[in-house]
Design brief:
single chain; 324 residues; mainly alpha; two-stranded antiparallel ribbon; 12 helices
Amino acid sequence: MILGIIADQVIGDPHFAPHPVRAIGRLISFLDGKLLGVRPDDAQRDPAKERWRGFVCWMIVIIVTVSISASLLIVAYTINIYAGIAVESVMVAYTLAARSLFRESMAVYKKLSGHDIAGAREALSMIVGRDSAELDEEDIVKAAVETVAENTSDGVIAPLLYDAICPVLGMFYKAVNTMDSMIGYRNDRYENFGRFAAKSDDVINFVPARLSAAFMTVGCAIASFFSKRFDVHDAYRIYKRDRKNHLSPNSAMTESVCAGSLGLKLGGTHTYGGVTVEKPSIGDEKKRADKDCIKDANTLMFMTEAVACLMLVVIMLTICMLIR
């Protein structure tokens, strides 16, 4: 686990190398085309059949992902323990997205630092689903902060928790999470086909999201010793008040801690693919969202990961000593 975290921090997701999540994405796209295809005539659509096909898609992706991951791990440990450790470390690194999230969000920061609003909008569009063409600088910053905060749970802590049990579970988590991000939308195409993918993602993220909020609060407390830009009192206060202010049962957990810590008002109504989606707001607007808030959100992300890693190591060592 530690080797995987270090590899993610140093390398991130290498674009020059094959990545299992991209392979999972291609499999999902293939099954989407085969099982759902094109449905131009609403009169011919069968919601029950689409939900069933969505479940079949989910099962195929999970079976393929878990089977290949487990087989690779078994073969590696059959060779020797060092090969097994190497494969486990690579799996952990592939499931984590801390370095990539930092890199992509800081690309927005760099564009804003150069007063390139158009470039910042384009960089933002790489990491958010909302329409970014009309966003001003403050909205761009808030969108980037929201993405970092939400993905601290989805892309860092949740996979890390599953990796701590077994990297195959980490790959299982990434498969479920990738399906949710690709077909788990409440729109005309995926309302039924992607329902199981969306619900399963809610289930497997339920506990990790709440643990992530706790880890982030501790991380905020540590960061507040070094910078006045972080407020642990408001982080906890806004978490208690706004942790359920989201369409997802999990997304507002870390977003509320981050919003309170940085004194920002996040969430609210946004446009996705030309469709306006009304969502409640999170946090109080105690200050204007400036570009440095993106750096602050990343600091919280890394502090959260450090706290989670430390807690997991202590738990693992305790278990080992009890077993012995």
